[in-house]
Design the sequence.
């Protein structure tokens, strides 16, 4: 999954390979299907740039549900401001996404992880 995501970045940037939008999207889709929230968010960007705002919102909803903070920020902005994407996320969908995002973040918390973070801050 991570390999597909990394390949998508290489094809997007042309780093060591020729830039290839089709291969970039293919590898993003594979990584997103495998559960990579960064790939899902990047697919949202690709869809948004192509004018497919509803699909972009759906990708960002899935990424936010997986705990991706940037996707949640995009959705929050879209919900509050409207603009080009106004009306594409309902109040209920946004509330459900907030709850799922928080559950995903909470699921990654553990006493051991918090101890390690506290120890890192002391250094």
Sequence:
């Amino acid at each position: 999954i991570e390999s597909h995501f990394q390949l998508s970045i290489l094809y997007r940037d042309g780093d060591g390979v020729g830039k290839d939008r089709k291969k970039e999207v293919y590898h993003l889709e594979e990584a997103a299907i495998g559960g990579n929230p960064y790939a899902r968010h990047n697919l949202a960007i690709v869809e948004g740039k192509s004018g497919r705002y509803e699909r972009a919102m759906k990708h960002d909803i899935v990424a936010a549900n997986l705990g991706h903070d940037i996707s949640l920020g995009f959705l929050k902005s879209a919900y509050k401001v409207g603009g080009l994407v106004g009306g594409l996320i309902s109040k209920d969908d946004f509330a459900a996404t907030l709850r799922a995002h928080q559950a995903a973040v909470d699921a990654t918390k553990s006493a051991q992880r918090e101890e390690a973070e506290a120890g890192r801050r002391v250094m």
Summary: DSSP finds seven helices and no strands in the chain. The chain has a mean pLDDT of 89. The radius of gyration is 16 Å.
